[in-house]
Amino acid sequence: MMLLLFSGAIPAQKLSDSAFASLITCGPGNDFYTTFGHTALRICDSARKTDIVFNYGTFDFNTPHFYLKFSRGILQYQLSISHFNSFMAEYVYEGRAVSEQRLLLTQEELERLYDALMENYLPKNRYYPYDFFIDNCATRVRDQIESALVGRHFYRSECGDDNLSFRQLLHPPMEQKLEWWKFGIDLVLGARCDRKATTLQYMFLPEHLMVQSDTGRFEGTLQPLAEPPHQMLPERREELSDSFPPDIVLWAVLLVYGILSLSELLKKRTTCIGKVADTLLYTATSLLSLLIVFLWFFTAHYCTKWNLNLLWANPLFICMLFRRKRSGIAIPLILYICCGISLFILLFQWPQAIPMAALPLMFTLMLRLYVSGIRNRVS
Question: Does residue 101 sit in helix, strand or coil?
Fold first, then answer.
């Protein structure tokens, strides 16, 4: 959520009575990895001339095998410390909004929070296995605040009937501007992402952590955890343009393949254009299937497991690429049935939500499998 690395050491010290802690919430940027914002903690003590930001969203680009570890979900993120002015300068440069909420902590709780953060910053403690949904910059901040409270608890984990799933929580920041990213993410996220998130789990997104810290109340009181957010920086970034909906593109692809298939059925033979079109279609589907397999079985990502898109984006399409002339009826039939099951899942959005933009892709695959079956029977 924020890629800033600061290696300077800040000595631990006792805070004065004028010190305060605040929740810093940063708005989205124009790069995709900044779409969901960022969370950090500020500790300010004017009497001690201390004004620093604790940031759990950093990592080291010089880590050995960086990209492999990142793709497998085993890259170690770390807590870093930066001076407040340096932290803000990054967001001024990017034109991103920044809001601050002072935490309503007692002096004892403030000291506990500061001590815990400094203990967490020790080299042996600062690294952690990042997970976007369950262990990220926002959830780390939430947990540190909760652990600092004395004799009271703020964050609750109930799950109401109107609670959204992880997938549904991801959609709003990507609407209109990042439709292709939204489609791609929906393809690689599995069924775990469609469970209802608890109110505690909502706070993996910085915006929800900010809102709940202001609107929630300590049990049996009317006291919130934090003051209402105060905007320190307005958003000045260049507005992203609306993206062209993938649904329209993929329905157009289905129309093209439909015309091609009708032509081949009338001619009772495969055309060169048909062979090239099938190669492109099966190659794209095979590559998607391999990506889903990799993310499911060979990574530590929590929400890419049990991905039922693997039914229609099936690795068996690799066989259709290399054995089309002698594939027989078995493999096309299996793939046809798998696509049919996927259509059923898409219709009921259970046990996994399959994006509606995948519907024309399924129809296209089933159409070409049908034409392939006809050709095999004719030959």
Answer: strand
User: Do 218 and 225 touch, CB atoms closer than 8 A?
Assistant: yes
CATH number of the domain enclosing 139: 3.90.1720
Q: Give me the number of domains the chain comprises.
A: 2
Q: Same domain for 90 and 229?
A: yes
The 3-state DSSP class for residue 271 equals coil
Query: Which DSSP string do the residues of 140-169 spell out, in sequence order?
Result: HHHHHHHHH-SS---------TTPPBHHHH
Inter-residue contact 328 to 316 (CB < 8 Å):
no
Beta partners for residue 20, in sequence order: 44
pLDDT single digits (tens) 115-165: 999 999 999 999 999 999 999 999 999 999 999 999 998 988 888 889 999
pLDDT, tens only, 154-205: 988 888 889 999 999 999 999 989 999 999 999 999 999 999 999 999 999 9
CB within 8 A of 84, min separation 6: which ones?
42, 44, 51, 52, 53
Query: Do residue 229 and residue 322 come from a single domain?
Result: no
Q: Which two tokens stand for residue 124?
A: 């042996």
Residue 87 lies in a domain: yes
Strands 127-129 and 76-83: antiparallel
Give me 227's structure tokens: 């003051």
On whether both 251 and 229 belong to a single domain, the answer is no
Half-sphere exposure of 61 (CA within 13 A, CB side): 4
* Domain coverage including residue 140: 20-158+198-233
Starting at the edge strand found earlier in the chain, the sheet holding 230-233 runs: 127-129, 76-83, 50-58, 38-45, 20-26, 98-102, 230-233
CA distance 225 to 220: 13
Is the overall model pTM greater than 0.85, yes or no? yes
Radius of gyration for the chain, computed over Cα atoms and rounded to the nearest angstrom:
26
Q: Which two tokens stand for residue 362?
A: 């399924």
Cβ count near 85 (within 10 Å): 10
> Would you give the distance in Å from CA 222 to the centre of its chain?
34
Q: Is residue 122 part of a domain?
A: yes
Of the chain, the end-to-end C-alpha distance in Å amounts to 56
